[in-house]
Amino acid sequence: MRPSNLLAVPLLVLASCGRPGLAPIPSNRPLVIAHRGASGHRPEHTVAAYTLAVEMGADFIEPDLVSTKDGVLVARHENDIGGTTDVAEKFPDRKARKVIDGDTLTGWFTEDFTLAELRTLRAKERLPFRSHAYDGRYAIPTFDEVLALADSLGRARGRVVGVYPETKHPTYHRAIGLPLEEKLLATLQARGLDDRNAPVFIQSFEDGNLRTLRAQTRVKLVYLTSTPLSADRLRDLATFVDAVGVNQRLVVGADSAAAPTSLIRDAHAAGLAVHVWTMRSEPVFLAKRYGGDPVAEVRELVRLGADGIFGDFPDVVVAGVVRGR
């Protein structure tokens, strides 16, 4: 069970938001957040991955958002889609070299394709050691389609399914004339998901992006980081975000002798919830301290007071969060 002295989590009490008869997202345990959908089981950011995640019990599905050439938000982890689609085979001449957030990259970028062109592509698994049995089956969904899917899946199961979008490279997108923020908020508003109690978190690694969004929306905001956070920094973040999304190694080290840090306690003291990323079951990702048991990692984070846990394998996170209490 979570300690009783943790943050009273009003931001996690997510109403049915205009969906009468649907069970709200639980507020008495950490949230189960499907990282890019059930991306350990299906190609990431596809309808199949999101659907399987909800079937496995995820509370939230997570679409990373980038823009097409014609200004439509689509779900891809990066705007470079060379590794996650068959774009190289279908559009070999569109390969480009760009500088994005200071990094020089060569690949195929969503902002060079219209939505109609992206519709011709099919997703594939990014990691070589995961199953490629589903490569070539699924299209790239738009953000609006992800929202519609969450609503449909929730209604079919009698419970609210939340959506946890991330703005990817927002400064870069704004610089090329394809800003993400306004379209993101407009899409949420069109579906009645633009108030404080909506089952939505908007996340970003960029401080300025979140400060801009705070002035434009009451939807809950999350600052992402893999850098240690001081108590002063947490108090500053609490002036414009509702939670921090942190790499799990900021909470507990990989070594079996490593003591947990005070990050969750300090964030709660500042009035922030803590969502931890990303739980992955494969040995290449799992810390030795867990002896090959990915559920043990989830359970440790639950004991330490995490308010939400991202996972590529939502079934594993559910096992540690819901069934393992």
Task: Describe the structure in brief.
The chain is α/β, with parallel strands linked by helices and 325 residues long.
Key terms:
325 residues, eight-stranded parallel beta sheet, 16% strand
Descriptive account of the structure:
- This protein has 325 residues and is of the alpha/beta class.
- The protein has one domain (10-77, 138-321): Alpha-Beta Barrel (TIM Barrel), CATH 3.20.20.
- It is 27% helix and 16% strand.
- It contains eleven helices and 13 strands.
- An eight-stranded parallel beta sheet has the order 7-2-1-13-12-11-10-9.
- Strand 5 and strand 6 (103-107) form a beta hairpin.
- Helix 1 (47-55) runs parallel beside helix 4 (143-157) and helix 10 crosses helix 11 (314-321).
- The longest helix is centred in the middle third of the chain and has 15 residues, at 143-157.
- The protein is globular and about 50 Å long.
- The N and C termini lie close together (6 Å).
- The relative contact order is 0.16.
Range of helix content: 25-40%
Q: From N to C, what is the helix and strand string?
A: EHEEEHEEHHEEHHEHEHEHEHEH
User: How far apart lie the N and C ends?
Assistant: 6 Å
Sequence stretches where pLDDT stays below 50 over 5 or more residues? 1-16
* Domains, number: 1
The CATH class name reads Alpha Beta
Strand content: 15-25%
CATH topology: TIM Barrel
Strand order of the largest sheet: 7-2-1-13-12-11-10-9
Q: What is the number of beta strands? A: 13
Structural class: alpha/beta
Fourth CATH level, the homologous superfamily? Phosphatidylinositol (PI) phosphodiesterase
